[in-house]
Structures are given as structure tokens and as C-alpha cells.
Write a structure and sequence with these properties.
about 110 residues, mainly alpha, Flavocytochrome C3, Chain A, domain 2, two-stranded antiparallel ribbon, 2 strands
């Protein structure tokens, strides 16, 4: 029997199970947001900057409050306000940049 492959939004493919983890762009697209929501002037060649993220997600302090029950709180750390894309990657898997020195069991969307 031949397995069928279904693609959702042309990004996430399923064949009975998830074949790839969704990335940040998938999460935004699923919520009806187009590229222009993050990319200034819809210019996909330029990186997304923190001010674009904070338009929707509020201040960095608001994000620290939102993740206050996460231990350690990734938005309240010894680096202070970091660029969101240090951890959150739009079109590839996100990372826990803290793990360059530490070994935290954090999930980064």
C-alpha cells in the first residue's frame, strides 16, 4: 500500500506522523499572519528585528512576566534584553542559546 503525503501550508508534511517539527514561521502562518507581519516592508532578505516581535508580543519585560514560571526564566537572565532571534528562529529550528554555557531543559518555540 502506498503512503500518502499531506502538506499543510506547504511547510509541514504529514504521513501518519509529523515528519518535521514546525518552525516559528509555521506557527505564525497557522494564526493567519503573513510574511509582512514580521519582515519589515515585506522584505524577506532582511532579518527580523526585536522591535517587530515586540509589536505583537509586548515589551521584553512583559515576555519575562509571561515566562516567569519557567525555571530558569529565559527572558530574565544575566544578558538582559536580547534580540529575540538569538533563540527564536523563523525558518529553522529554534535554539536555547543559554545552552552554549549551561544545560537547561527548556523548549523554545
Amino acid at each position: 500500500m502506498k503512503k500518502e503525503l499531506f502538506c499543510i501550508l506547504g511547510l509541514l508534511c504529514l504521513s501518519g506522523a509529523i515528519a518535521a517539527q514546525p518552525v516559528m514561521a509555521d506557527r505564525h502562518a497557522a494564526r493567519g499572519m503573513g510574511c509582512e507581519a514580521c519582515h519589515a516592508a515585506n522584505d524577506k532578505t532582511r532579518p527580523v528585528r526585536k522591535d517587530a516581535c515586540l509589536k505583537c508580543h509586548g515589551s521584553y519585560e512583559a515576555m519575562a512576566k509571561r515566562t516567569e514560571k519557567v525555571v530558569p526564566n529565559p527572558h530574565f537572565n544575566h544578558y538582559g534584553d536580547r534580540d529575540c532571534t538569538t533563540c527564536h528562529k523563523g525558518h529553522q529550528q529554534s535554539v536555547v542559546s543559554c545552552n552554549a554555557c549551561h544545560q537547561f531543559d527548556l523548549k523554545t518555540p
